[in-house]
C-alpha cells in the first residue's frame, strides 16, 4: 500500500510539473505592420519591386495550406493621406485585406485620416482598446486549435491629431489601468495576450504592465524586420514597413500559456511570388477607378489653364542644343511615358510626375491628348521651364540654372523609385553638355 501511495504521489508530481505527458502547444503567427498606403510596389527598380497586396494574398494562401491554424495579424498603419489618390488607394487596400481573412488589425492614427466610418465600413477585425466610441471593440478574442489569443491595441493619446484641433472631442482615453486589467483578465481566462501599439518599448514599459503581455507588436520604423526579442515574459516583435515582406514566428506555448520557445523567419515577396488570381478583378477595378479619378482631375486642370505655359517641350530646345537633344532622344528618358502604359500606370499620379514634364504644376502635363508634347522625361524635367530662356534666345537662364547634377536627378531618383541611384554610374547614360555640337 505504501508503494502504491508513493507511486501515485510521484505520478501526480510529474503531471503537475509537465514531465509526464507534455502539455505544450504550437502556434504560428504571420505578422506585418505599417503598409503606409502601398497597395503595390513601385516597379521602377528591381530591388524595390517587393510586396504588394496581390503577392501577399498569394503567400498567405501558401502558408495556410501548410499551417491551416495560423493567426494572421497586422499592427495597423495601413493607410496614408498625403495625396488625393491616397483615399482611393486606401479603399482598395482595405478591400484587398478583407479578402485575406485577417484575425486582428491594430489601428494607428494614420488609419483614421479619412474618419472612423471609412475603415469601419470594410468589416475588418479592428481592435482599439482605449477607443471611447462603440465603432471598434476593445478586445478581440480568437480561439483556434485549442489556443486562445486575446488582441489589444493601445492608441497613443499623446500623438492624437485631435490635440491640435480646438474644441475637438477626444476619441481615446488615457486610462492605462483599464487595459492592464483587461490584459490580466484575458490571461487569467487562459489566453495568450497580444498588444499592438505605436509606443516605443520604453514608453510601453512605463505605462503598461508587461508582466501580463505575452506578445508585443510595435510600430515598424524601416523596411526590414527586427529579430524578435524575449524580454521577461514578453516576446517583442517589430515588423518592416511598406508591405515588402511578412514576418513569421512559430511559437511553443507551455502549460501556463507562456512562450517557451520560438523560431523566426522573414518571408520576402519578390516578383517571383505569383499574384493571387482571385484578386485580378479587384485590381482591374482599382485601375479603372484610378483612371476615372485621373480624368476627372484632368478636366478640372484643363478648365483652369489660362495664358501660355512656361513649358515648351523638348522640340523647343532642339534648335540650339541639337547634340544634347540627339543624346536625349536615344535615352530611356525619351520613352519614359510609354513604360507607364506597358504596366497600366499611365493614369497613376504617383508615377506620372516622374515620367512627364511639369505634372500638377501650372502649365505642365495634363494628359497625353491635351499636352502630348510634355510626355516623357524631357529637358524641362531636369532644367525647369524654358519659355523665358527660349523666347529670349538664351539671354535668360532656365529655371533650374545653377543646380548641381545630383539635385537635378534627385527630383525623381529617390527612395523606392530609385533606391540604388548613383550619379557617377547613371550620368554616363545621359551625359551631354550645353553646346549644340557635342554629337559632332
Major beta-sheet overview: 6 strands, mixed
Helix content: 25-40%
**Helices and strands: which structural class?**
alpha/beta
Strand adjacency order, main sheet: 4-3-2-1-11-12
Annotation, overall tally of beta strands: 12
Q: Termini separation (Å)?
A: 111 Å
Assign the CATH architecture of the largest domain: 4-Layer Sandwich
SSE arrangement, N to C: HEHEHEHEEEHEHEEEEEHHHHHHHHH
Q: What is the CATH C level class of the largest domain, in words? A: Alpha Beta
Radius of gyration: 28 Å
CATH topology of the largest domain: Purple Acid Phosphatase, chain A, domain 2
Record the SSE blueprint.
Elements: H1 2-17, E1 25-32, H2 53-66, E2 71-74, H3 85-98, E3 104-106, H4 116-120, E4 126-127, E5 140-144, E6 147-154, H5 176-188, E7 191-197, H6 201-207, E8 215-217, E9 226-231, E10 234-238, E11 245-253, E12 259-268, H7 280-304, H8 315-318, H9 322-329, H10 336-342, H11 349-352, H12 379-383, H13 387-391, H14 405-409, H15 423-426
Parallel strand pairs: 1-2, 2-3, 3-4, 6-7, 7-8, 8-10
Antiparallel strand pairs: 1-11, 5-6, 9-10, 11-12
Helix pairs in contact: 3-7
Amino acid at each position: 500500500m505504501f508503494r502504491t501511495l508513493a507511486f501515485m504521489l510521484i505520478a501526480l508530481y510529474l503531471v503537475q510539473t509537465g514531465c509526464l505527458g507534455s502539455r505544450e502547444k504550437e502556434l504560428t503567427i504571420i505578422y506585418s505592420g505599417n503598409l503606409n498606403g502601398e497597395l503595390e510596389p513601385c516597379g521602377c527598380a528591381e530591388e524595390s519591386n517587393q510586396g504588394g497586396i496581390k503577392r501577399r494574398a498569394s503567400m498567405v494562401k501558401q502558408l495556410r495550406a501548410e499551417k491551416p491554424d495560423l493567426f494572421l495579424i497586422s499592427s495597423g498603419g495601413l493607410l496614408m493621406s498625403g495625396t488625393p489618390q491616397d483615399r482611393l488607394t486606401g479603399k482598395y487596400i482595405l478591400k484587398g485585406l478583407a479578402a485575406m481573412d485577417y484575425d486582428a488589425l491594430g489601428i494607428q492614427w494614420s488609419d483614421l485620416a479619412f474618419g472612423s466610418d471609412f475603415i469601419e465600413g470594410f468589416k475588418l477585425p479592428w481592435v482599439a482598446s482605449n477607443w471611447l466610441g462603440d465603432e471598434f471593440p476593445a478586445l478581440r478574442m480568437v480561439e483556434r486549435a485549442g489556443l486562445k489569443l486575446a488582441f489589444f491595441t493601445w492608441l497613443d493619446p499623446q500623438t492624437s491629431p485631435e490635440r491640435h484641433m480646438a474644441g475637438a472631442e477626444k476619441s481615446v482615453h488615457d486610462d492605462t489601468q483599464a487595459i492592464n486589467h483587461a490584459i490580466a483578465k484575458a490571461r487569467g481566462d487562459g489566453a495568450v495576450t497580444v498588444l499592438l501599439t505605436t509606443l516605443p518599448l520604453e514608453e510601453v514599459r512605463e505605462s503598461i504592465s508587461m508582466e501580463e503581455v505575452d506578445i508585443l507588436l510595435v510600430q515598424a520604423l524601416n523596411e526590414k524586420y527586427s529579430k524578435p526579442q524575449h524580454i521577461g515574459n514578453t516576446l517583442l516583435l517589430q515588423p518592416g514597413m511598406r508591405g515588402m515582406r511578412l514576418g513569421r514566428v512559430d511559437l511553443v506555448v507551455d502549460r501556463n500559456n507562456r512562450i517557451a520557445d520560438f523560431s523566426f523567419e522573414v518571408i520576402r515577396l519578390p516578383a517571383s511570388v505569383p499574384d493571387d488570381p482571385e484578386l485580378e478583378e479587384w485590381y482591374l477595378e482599382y485601375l479603372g477607378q484610378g483612371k476615372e479619378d485621373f480624368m476627372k482631375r484632368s478636366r478640372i486642370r484643363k478648365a483652369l489653364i489660362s495664358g501660355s505655359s512656361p513649358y515648351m517641350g523638348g522640340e523647343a530646345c532642339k534648335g540650339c542644343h541639337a547634340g544634347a537633344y540627339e543624346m536625349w532622344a536615344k535615352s530611356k528618358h525619351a520613352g519614359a511615358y510609354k513604360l507607364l502604359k506597358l504596366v497600366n500606370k499611365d493614369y497613376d499620379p504617383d508615377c506620372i510626375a516622374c515620367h512627364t514634364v511639369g505634372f500638377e504644376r501650372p502649365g505642365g502635363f495634363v494628359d497625353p491628348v491635351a499636352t502630348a508634347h510634355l510626355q516623357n522625361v524631357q529637358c524641362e524635367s531636369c532644367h525647369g521651364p524654358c519659355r523665358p530662356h527660349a523666347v529670349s534666345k538664351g539671354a535668360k537662364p532656365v529655371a533650374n540654372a545653377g543646380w548641381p547634377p545630383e539635385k537635378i536627378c534627385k527630383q525623381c531618383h529617390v527612395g523606392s523609385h530609385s533606391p540604388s541611384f548613383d550619379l557617377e554610374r547613371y550620368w554616363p547614360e545621359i551625359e551631354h553638355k550645353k553646346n549644340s555640337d557635342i554629337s559632332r
